[in-house]
Amino acid sequence: MAGAGQLIIAGSETVLWVAAAEVALYLVLSVVAFVMYAVDKSAARSAGRRRIPERTLLVVSVLGGWPGSIVAQQTFRHKTRKASFRRAFLVTMVINIAVVGAVAVLQASNVLDALQATF
């Protein structure tokens, strides 16, 4: 049977791996979002080029790419004036942050339950 110290270390390593994976996911999705905004801005300037649908930009944002979207919006001055898009984008940010926060609380609760069970 593992001791409490071993369980705490194993649990801490798991939490660190999960946190690292979450950071990596945010970074990848932020880069994807940034590139998508750049491509869409370029297409908006050129007649006849296919645009990236707003829905696609919002899906990437709600999945975790919103930090890259914010940087791209400011860098390219793109999608900053359309009020309906700005509202929808804000909703995607709030949804993402709420879901990530809820998952973090559940993870913390599970870790605390596991610690209490060992003592």
Shape: elongated
Runs with pLDDT <50, length 5+? none
Largest sheet composition: none
**Proportion of beta-strand residues:** under 5%
| Total domain count | 1
Q: From the alpha carbons, calculate the radius of gyration and give it in angstroms.
A: 20 Å
Secondary-structure content class: mainly alpha
Distance N terminus to C terminus?
A: 13 Å
Q: What is the helix/strand order?
A: HHH
Number of β-strand runs: 0
List keywords for this structure.
mainly alpha
What would your notes on this structure say?
- This protein is mainly alpha-helical.
- It has three helices and no strands.
- The protein has one domain.
- Helix 1 crosses helix 2, helix 1 packs antiparallel against helix 3 and helix 2 crosses helix 3.
- The two termini are 13 Å apart.
- The model has no long low-confidence stretch (mean pLDDT 87).
Give a topology summary:
Blueprint: H1 4-45, H2 54-76, H3 83-118
Question: What is the gist of this entry?
Answer:
With 119 residues, the protein is mainly alpha-helical. The protein is built from three helices and no strands.
